Amino acid sequence: MPSETPVPTMRAVTQDTAGGPDVLRVVRTRRPEPGRGEILVRVHAAGVNPADWKTRQRGVFADGTPLPFTLGFDVSGVVEETGDGVTLFQPGDEVFGMPRFPHPAGAYAEYVTAPARHFAPRPRGLTHLEAGALPLAALTAWQALVDTAGVRPGRRVLVHAAAGGVGHLAVQIAKARGAHVIGTASAAKHDLVRSLGADELVDYRTQDFAETVRDVDVVLETIGGANWARSLRTLRPGGRLVSILPLDDTFPHEAAEAAGVRAEFMLVEPDRQGLREIAALAEDGRLRVIADTVFPLEDVAAAHTLGEAGRTTGKIVLSVAP
Predict the structure, then answer these.
(1) CA 193, CA 189: separation in Å to the nearest integer?
(2) What is the pLDDT of residue 260?
(3) Spatial distance between the Cα atoms of 176 and 197, rounded to a whole number of angstroms
(4) How far is CA 249 from the centre of its chain?
(5) pTM of the entire structure?
(6) pLDDT tens digit string along 244-281?
(7) Residue segments in the chain with a per-residue pLDDT below the cut of 70
(8) Which residues does 9 contact at the CB level (< 8 Å), separation at least 6?
(9) Residue pLDDT, tens place only, 168-200
């Protein structure tokens, strides 16, 4: 009898229960196949984001997808196969993207499949590790500042956690749009954030930004909680607070209305055009991504432990393939 064709497999991170980083384990599983309009990407690097460890802790995706699952949204890699109807890419093309968000993408694996239009060509001059750190954080900053707030020359923009994953990219995007950028960060990170384009810096450990920052047009709010009310005090009438965290019952809606400012929650979406704009900034040298620490896929638990400590600068990245 003829032998059966072996089923292609891959390494992937999975979890069967909610919990700490120790629930993550690397297994060998079946390699996915691209459907119509999809591409199969061999993953070289996958970014690690707060959404990942929050999902791991809850044991359920924001869209309700239950365990078991594979985490990860940021992807940089090479197209391996294309599904029916795909015209944008062909095998061998290098791409990066944030596929399927907020639905599971499974980027902590050697291969992912997703709609072709959730990807864009990898920025020239960036390594896979750098490109893998970009999509979710950069698209969040772009969609918040450009698409939602319409930042333009002369605007005053306050970026919280300006040395963080979203923050360090937001500073550069706002600056590239001609804004006057104010950032909050610990004093040890001021030189870095200033080198990225910040015009003013506030050490949140020793200064109350709500007492010193005034007449801001846009606040990019990445912290939430008590920071919401304090951020409102920095905005001019008619200003805009864009939060990347849901405005829950703790948000001071009445205070925002009384101050005459607009506040809204923005959820990042897959965005091919946004990726192309981000790539153009990177290729022009106006956007630099900082990959704080790189871990091999097998050390995914250590990557989550570091991320949850909240002391990283820039992004954490998993190296999946050479």
Answers:
(1) 6
(2) 96
(3) 9
(4) 25
(5) 0.96
(6) 999 999 999 999 999 999 999 999 999 999 999 999 99
(7) 1-3, 322
(8) 28, 29, 30, 31
(9) 999 999 999 999 999 999 999 999 999 999 999
The answer to whether 210 and 231 have CB atoms below 8 angstroms apart is yes
13, amino acid identity: V
Non-local CB neighbours of 54 within 8 Å, separated by 6+ positions:
none
Q: Considering Cα of 62, then 172, then 163, then 22, what sign does the dihedral take?
A: positive
Verify cis geometry, omega within 30 degrees of 0, for the bond prior to 115: no
pLDDT of 311 reads 82
Helix count and strand count (H, E) for the chain: 10, 15
Q: Give the Cα separation of 322 and 128 in Å (integer).
A: 9
Of 27, 277, 313, 275, the closest CA to residue 168 belongs to 313
Domains of the chain are 9-134+290-319 (3.90.180.10), 137-265 (3.40.50.720)
Tokens 């802790």 correspond to 57
Q: Which helix (H) or strand (E) holds 263?
A: strand 262-265
Q: β-strands 235-243, 262-265: how paired?
A: parallel
User: Which tokens hold the place of 189?
Assistant: 């990170």
* Summary mean pLDDT of the chain: 96
By the 8 A CB rule, do 109 and 15 touch?
Answer: no
The tokens for 289 are: 């991504």
Contacts made by residues 186-195, CB under 8 angstroms, sequence distance 24+: 189/162, 189/163, 189/313, 192/163, 192/168, 192/290, 192/313, 193/162, 193/163, 193/168
Residues 6+ apart with CB under 8 A from 209: 158, 184, 202, 230, 234
